[in-house]
TrEMBL record:
Keywords: Membrane, Transmembrane, Transmembrane helix
Record field: compositional bias (Acidic residues): 1-10
Organism: Natronorubrum halalkaliphilum
Pfam families listed in its UniProt record: DUF2270 (PF10028)
Protein known as: DUF2270 domain-containing protein
Region span, Disordered: 1-22
Lineage: Archaea, Methanobacteriati, Methanobacteriota, Stenosarchaea group, Halobacteria
């Protein structure tokens, strides 16, 4: 196998990109190192996954408290639900930032899985990326974020936050309409001197922007892990 420290190191050479089978056939120092590297990356993936879950848990907890208080009495102001929307949106921003960090370590783990372990298990399929070692080396030398803020926001909205914010929107609409049937709903939507029509317009624009961020077509950069398939194909052979 070519010396990886050589100035003539070619990461696309067959013996360099397909080191997975050699790590299985021979006991190599690099194989031991990569095992520890992979274990470390998986640990960091788990840590950042927990941070994402903590953010979601706090958002759901505060949302439940706000919903309970908003409907506990007709005298409680409706705009507490708008405050809830603002708070959940702040949690969305925090989680999107954490997702970008999480994706760095998840992407590294996927590179190792696709090109090292998969190749070791079945060398006949080759590797996913011929210069994966060079790519991984560059990322260790200069760690970079793999996804944009827009993609991170869209991901967290699709997975969690669009549903949470939709619940708050429905609750607010119900609060200013059916929950206060004796008043005109635009009058009920007023906040201090701000007319109800202005409040409704701002809320409407905000949700249109959310939908645009969530569903606007864009190139995906996050490295995927799962794909759709027939689960019976796997189960029949086990």
């Amino acid at each position: 196998m070519t010396d990886s420290n050589s100035d003539e190191f070619d990461p696309t050479a067959p013996d360099q990109r397909e080191i997975g089978r050699e790590m299985v056939d021979d006991s190599t120092g690099l194989g031991s190192v990569m095992a520890h590297v992979y274990r470390g990356e998986i640990d960091r993936v788990g840590t950042w996954r927990e941070r994402l879950d903590e953010t979601t848990t706090w958002a759901v907890t505060l949302m439940a408290a706000i919903l309970t208080w908003a409907f506990s009495s007709p005298d409680n102001p409706h705009y507490i639900l708008l405050v809830g929307i603002l708070i959940v949106t702040i949690f969305l921003g925090i989680e999107a930032r954490r997702y970008r960090d999480y994706d760095v370590f998840r992407s590294r783990a996927r590179v190792i899985q696709e090109n090292l372990f998969a190749n070791a298990l079945d060398p006949s399929q080759g590797v996913e990326s011929h210069d994966w070692r060079a790519e991984l080396s560059r990322d260790y030398r200069r760690p970079t974020l793999k996804v944009s803020s827009h993609e991170a926001l869209a991901n967290r909205l699709r997975r969690v936050y669009l549903a949470l914010l939709s619940v708050l929107l429905v609750a607010w609409v119900f609060r200013i309409t059916a929950f206060a049937p004796r008043q005109d709903w635009l009058t009920t939507a007023e906040i201090a001197r701000i007319p109800g029509i202005a409040v409704v317009a701002v809320v409407g624009v905000f949700y249109v922007v959310l939908l645009g961020v969530t569903f606007w077509p864009h190139e995906r950069h996050a490295k995927g892990e799962f794909r759709e398939g027939d689960p019976d194909d796997w189960k029949e052979n086990r």
